[in-house]
Amino acid sequence: MSDLVECVMVLIVAFVIDWLMGDPLYLLHPVRIIGHTISLMEKFLRSLRCSGVLGGGLLAITVLTIIVFSYWGLRHVLGLCHPWLAVAFDIFMVYSCVALRDLLKHAKTVAEALEKDNLPEARKAVQRMVGRDAAVLDVHGVARAAVESVAEGLLDGVFSPLNWYVIGAGCALLVHVSPVPWAVTAMLVYRATNTLDSMVGYQNERYLYFGRVSAKLDDMLNFVPARLSVPVLFVASIVCGLNSRAGWKTALRDRLKHPSPNSAHPESFAAGALCIRIGGPLQYHDGMDDKPWLGDGSQDATGKDILSVCRLVMFAGWISMFASVVFLLILGQL
Question: Where are the domains of the chain?
Answer without folding.
Answer: 3-332
